[in-house]
Design goal:
- The chain is of the alpha+beta class.
- The chain folds into 2 domains: 189 residues, Phosphorylase Kinase, domain 1, CATH 3.30.200; 78 residues, no CATH class.
- It has 10 helices and 12 strands.
- The strands form 4 sheets. A 6-stranded antiparallel sheet has the order 3-7-8-6-5-4, sandwiched between helices. The protein has a two-stranded antiparallel sheet with strand order 1-2. A two-stranded antiparallel sheet has the order 9-12.
- A hairpin with a 3-residue loop joins strand 4 and strand 5.
- Helix 6 packs across helix 8.
- The protein is elongated and about 70 Å long.
- The termini are far apart.
Length: 322
């Protein structure tokens, strides 16, 4: 695909490679999608057992393009802002099953599961394996964290960063523009129900990403993230995340000698400020509740965190509102 750079020049961008590197903002995604031809908005790959006897790259590429086009037609057919009766989906399901049978030589079963604010979900079964097909639709609720471009980009980034026990596998999808009707994503189907759980982390547990809804238990099933909306960075780069991780673990282990040495080691690096701010913000939020501060922190931890807060304020000349 091509992207218009800040200098006005065109630069080739591999979307899969770009999405694996980091989470992109809604503004970045809109610019990328807008400058990408429709045929280049398909991302991912077919499950390997769909290939059958095809072995050459040309045969696999031809099959992949035809399957992608079939799923795109299905997404367009069931696209609707209104909650259509599941009966109305049957004809589109029939055509998609027929296409899968003709193209892959495998029988497929499919059923409607339900809908949410940003899409409707179908369960697809091919060769005994179950998949979740989410087709995006218009929503009355505006969001830069969900929908037909953000969720696919998030799925690719999260699949690249997290192990399979933490998330549903992403297979393929089409990233769609604002006025497109054929956005969809195919992922692993995880059986079970989304149940609200108390998933609050330990006081100094390190996290690379904030999954927000999943943090409350709504987007996870059996410990796996299955909905890739509402994911954001806790840190903007790996070095800041690593520094914060080391400091937080040292505090949790009450190894203050180690924590002091880490400050001396990293405090002059540009990434240190973001890591230090993360710890400072955590402590400021906690110290507002003196009962929690007393019951969940040792005297040593409280003293170190007070020292660290003063160090952060002084080093970065932070103004604290009274």
């Amino acid at each position: 695909m091509t992207k218009i750079s800040a200098t006005g020049q065109r630069a080739t961008v591999n979307m899969m490679r770009l999405f694996k590197r980091r989470l992109l903002s809604a503004e970045e995604l809109k610019a990328i999608v807008k400058s990408t031809p429709q045929e280049e908005r398909y991302l991912g790959h077919l499950p390997t057992d769909w290939f059958g006897k095809r072995k050459t790259n040309e045969e696999i590429s031809e099959l992949t393009q035809k399957v992608f086009a079939s799923f795109s037609r299905f997404a367009t057919g069931v696209y609707s802002k209104i909650n259509m009766s599941p009966v109305l989906y049957e004809s589109f399901i029939k055509y998609l099953r027929a296409d899968i049978r003709q193209l892959t030589k495998h029988r497929a079963s499919m059923e409607y599961v339900g809908r949410g604010l940003f899409g409707k979900v179908f369960k697809l079964k091919v060769k005994g394996k179950e998949y979740a097909l989410k087709v995006f639709h218009m929503s009355d609720r505006e969001s830069d964290l969900h929908g037909k471009s953000k969720e696919i980009a998030n799925a690719i980034a999260y699949n690249h960063a997290k192990s399979r026990r933490r998330r549903a596998d992403f297979y393929f999808g089409k990233i769609a523009g604002e006025n497109d009707m054929d956005g969809f994503i195919l992922t692993e189907f995880v059986p079970g129900e989304m149940v609200e759980k108390n998933l609050a982390p330990r006081r100094y547990e390190y996290r690379r990403y904030s999954t927000n809804d999943a943090y409350k238990g709504y987007n996870t099933i059996n410990g796996k993230l299955v909905d890739f909306g509402d994911i954001s960075d806790v840190f903007t780069n790996k070095m800041s995340a690593s520094i914060a991780k080391q400091l937080l673990w040292a505090i949790q282990a009450r190894d203050y000698k180690k924590a002091y040495s880490l400050i001396l080691k990293y405090e002059n690096l540009p990434e240190y400020r973001e890591a230090a701010k993360n710890i400072f913000d955590r402590y400021q939020a906690i110290r507002m509740n003196k009962k929690v501060l007393r019951t969940e922190h040792t005297v040593g931890q409280r003293k170190f965190l007070e020292y660290f807060s003063n160090h952060y304020i002084k080093k970065f000349k932070i103004k604290i509102e009274s």
